Amino acid sequence: MSTSVLASALFRPHRPVLALTLGLALAGTAYSQPIPATHDQKPGEKPMTAPKAIVLKVNGVVSYSDFGAKGDGTSDDGAAIAAAHKYANEHGLPVKADDGMAFYIGSSKRTITIETDTDFGTAKFIIDDSKVEVKDRGANVFQINSQLKAFTPEGVSSLKRNQANIGISLPGDCLVVANNAKVKRYIRYGLNQNNGSAQTDIFLVDKDGNVDPNTPIIWDFDEITSISALPLDNDQLTVRGGHFTTIANQAESKYTYYGRGIAVRRSNVLIEKLRHDITGEGEHGAPYGGFLNIGNCANVIVRDTVLTGHKTYRTIGSAGKPVSMGTYDISANRALNVSFINCSQTNDINDRRYWGILGSNYCKNLTYDGCTFSRFDAHMGVANATIRNSTMGHAGVNAIGCGTFTIENSTINGWTFISLRSDYGSTWQGEFIIRNCVFIPAGGAKAAATIFGGAYSGMHDFGYTCYMPERVVIDGLHIKDGNAPENYAGPAIFGNFNPKNTSSDYVEKFPYVITKEVVVKGVRSDSGKALRVSDNTHMFRNVKLTVLDAEK
């Protein structure tokens, strides 16, 4: 029988045992044939050896040991893991890590590309950042990529807020990112002050040019300096399992953010049952940009996953004064429809030595469901967000943005129930809904209870008009304010956003748009004191307060 006939027989159905046997026989000495060197291979490294392709195809799955990984916890297996995924990507095969092995990944700036389903199983991964040079810090260890390529759509020269159709057709559903570098937004104020960022928007568009109403255009673009479209993957890619441990970097405490995690750059991805620990944090270190770094994608679910908050280090900020550096185990940037379901963290969510676990920018439709995390956060805006069935720790809920923010069936331990970030103008253009929640001010420490905290002087240009939430609905809220300070007047809906704005004599250079209506039902406090609008009665004098269950 010829070799071609034998090879064809390998792929006939109903004969898996025979196929595997024949495949191994055919491999012969070819089993140890080297595969060509790739960009994943460091200079001087020996090329990986691989089984003959026919054997892997019969098995239907790729493992790291197939490509020479030792899995002993000390040998650097990065190149072998990269070779395994490269082969899997080229042949459309899933990857299954060898259960029980421990894969050490050293200081190489190599990024391992994942384009097929991957099951890390019970394998351990040791990511050693202790010797990673600052110049190599940004390279993520893994990156989940699409095989689809972004392109520049022609014929879009301007856009309007809430525009329903962009006026062109596309090859299919796409993630569109538009920029106007001539307009600056998010001009930050405070210890990390800056000159703002180019106006950016991200939204979903179908083949007929229709904008998904759940990801609306939120800015007017009189000019577009750049625009890109990335086709959406229709099939879900799953990355499952794995116990990852980061040996923390020992760099100087400066804003030199480290990557060294798992980046998600593909739409329609499920990450589940993953665990990330951190060890080796000392007296100094550089911050992290997120072990899970989700960006330029849509429809991502992280489920049943355990992560770890990073130790907080201090440095000198852009204003020339000491500042605590934000450092994250989760980051989301330019991402749409991202959900965290039944996730938690290893360290105490109320331990203030560790920074809030999430940082995000330019996102829409972020969701926590069944999560126990130290914080929810949106720096440069989120459009629509939901927290349900969750517990937030010491860093609470921090956000600016627009749309509807819903918090329901959740417990919040922050200094305030919601912190509207003052460094970005304490702005929310839209509605807040609070339903059946518990508020423990400062996690039970001595503190007054305030629902909305923030600050706004009216003297700084943030690059946009700043808004208080137009409407607030509170339907069921238990305020545990039994440990309040002396002279506590009772829980306030709004903090004193500007102690200087106490009369009509105060004129804001950049006027704040104040809340129009607050609707309240089912609020009770352990102090027994009634909910009130604010200490700053002048600033919030025009807020309409409706108490639906007030005694008549």
TrEMBL record:
InterPro entries: Pectin_lyas_fold, Pectin_lyase_fold/virulence. It comes from the Bacteria. SUPFAM superfamilies: Pectin lyase-like (SSF51126). Keywords: Signal. The keyword Signal applies. The keyword ATP-binding does not apply. Residues 1-32 form the signal peptide. This is Pectate lyase superfamily protein domain-containing protein.
